[in-house]
User: Fold these one by one.
Assistant:
Number 1:
Amino acid sequence: MIEIRKAEFEDLEEILRLQYLAFETRAIEAGTRDIPPLKQTLDEVKDEFQKGLFLKAVDGNRIIGSVRSREENGTVYIGKLIVHPEYRRNGYGTALLHEMEKCYPGRRFELFTGSDDADNLRLYGRNGYSEFCRREVNPYLTFVYLEKEPEIS
């Protein structure tokens, strides 16, 4: 059974390895390894960890997914929602996203993904995120920025 819980400092190396694996597929699709998640170092991940919240999805003792966030000026920035390729298309990405949102009730959420990543765009759209901006990173990569406004009760 897959469990989602807060990641610990000791998990960061395994999460970074999973990040490289998860984004390798994106690099192949984009035709370049020049994408930021494949260049991130362990020290940079440790710095992110100190400034935000990391969640992990675990199957036994194996981390099969992760998502991270940081809050700034009332907006929660969600980043690097990753799921191991063997576990994709089973709802774990959605579960990680929902768990992260539960940690920040009443907040606005913002995230981004590649413009050619139809699976991610579909996932975020199904979960209430809408596009508000696009930015070209390099000739191979354009980011689509999406937001989700707080639910009004």
Number 2:
Amino acid sequence: MAYYVVRTNDVRLLSASCDFEIKRGQNVIVDVDGIMEWAFVLYPVNSVDGESCKIVRVATDNDKATNDRMLGFVEGDKIKVAERVKALGLQLKLVTVLRSFDSKKILVMYTADDRVDFRQLVKDLAGIFRMRVEMRQISERDETKFCGGCGQCGQELCCRRFLNIPRQTSIKMAKTQGLSLTPSRVNGVCGKLMCCLQYEYGQYREVIAKLPPIGSEVETPDGKGEVVYLDILHELIAVKLENAEMPVAKYSEDQIKVLKAGAIDDEGVEE
């Protein structure tokens, strides 16, 4: 038995088991709790983790035509659902409406600020579409993951490509990495802190732990001074010297001696 991570049309990343050979990049038909769905094979894994499904077969040309036909219903189905949402006065934002590959289920993805009573909506939609209706409330991050886009780096969004569970990030991570704390610099397309703040955070912490905090009094080859900032990428310490002819100079860790350490906060970053 082999295991893979696959991405379905609703951009969920599922662990899929398979008892025949498949390759990365292939389209497959998967069984998700008795519902057949179209999926794309991303990469192999060692075991099932999280939501799972079973790969039924490699997709054929006929399967691709069927999937294209199902996707062709999206815009029309959204209009029908939006009309019912408006008629019932429900406070939600409709993201998309997807039919399963086998036409047994219709998925309504939406965002909402508060809890929504959609029982009547489900009854109405079941009567309209004559299939099982699933309402799925998603977050702003999930909405961005579904819609896709590019990050500040110019690459396709991480959540769209490979992140199944968004990384836990904090403003401390941006501060530690010396990033501007303005929302346009640290927030992603979804309006939340960028997941990639987590990627290099550990390395920055390791370097900061070796260097004296800002405000430390140090002895350098050029005299005494105070640490004014840290050049983390080059692992250098910027020191404001008492000698006015050389107001600020950079030194490596082995070139200085700490006379009095500056105060640090609970994240190891200068106050």
Number 3:
Amino acid sequence: MSMIVSATENDREEILELYRMQKGREFCPWSDDYPSDETISFDLSRDSLFVMKENEKIIAAISIEKDDDVDALDCWDKDLLPGGELARVAVDPSSQSRGIGRQLMEYGMRVLKERGFKSVHFLVNKKNIKAIKCYAPFGFNVVGECFMYDQDFFCYEKALDSFSLKQN
């Protein structure tokens, strides 16, 4: 049985290992410097890092990001502010293609709505076909494109007013 919970300091090493597993994989733009131990500290300090555990082992993670540069992009719908950003979706390679990424996104959107955000937005590397396929069923709007962090991104956005808070 799997469950999504808030990450704790005790999860740090396992999350770092999960992040390391992603680096160098096809379509993954992460580097040796990102995400890092400092990234985890930042997320933990804001109660914004969530993990999926299966038999006490972390198999996936997602964060609610706080990035002023992304928030300042002019493509976001002003009527949907405040908007929250989901980031750093990571699934253990041995657990991929089981719908876990979608479960994490649903959970993240529930948390954003509970915290008073009107919308969700995030960047997706244009070459990350796996992520684009994972997010397609949600009906996100591609509201723009940008070049940041030495990468080309699509800018995804969706209102949370119609998103159900029910547990799946």
Number 4:
Amino acid sequence: MSGLVLKLAPRERLLVNGAVIENGSRRSRIAVLTPKANILRLRDAIHPEQATSPVRRVVYIAQMVLSGDASEDSAKSELLRGIEQLSQALTDPDSRNHLAQATACVLSGDFYRALKSLRALMPREDRLLSAYPGPVL
């Protein structure tokens, strides 16, 4: 089976091409066979007021494409610019790998996988920001 496979918890909601879908009362797996379908788990969604750090702002832009609130063309340049800025600060090999994957996904139009790669950087950013308290630029 090819495509994206989502494992959903009971009553978990997701956004698929602009429509909110809720899982039933049991765990389930859904295979998405349509390439480039816009899918966003609502439990993973970042609200605008939560996009307060560099990584979260870039994740939010990718999320806006998946929710249909931003066009792929306009978001692509913003995402690539944001990823480039992140690569100036996150220089360890693992972060570089996630940023390279996110860049490749954005360039190929795979915004779900770009979002997934960028989200992996959030815990690292949280640790860095907690080590150096102060305002985030």
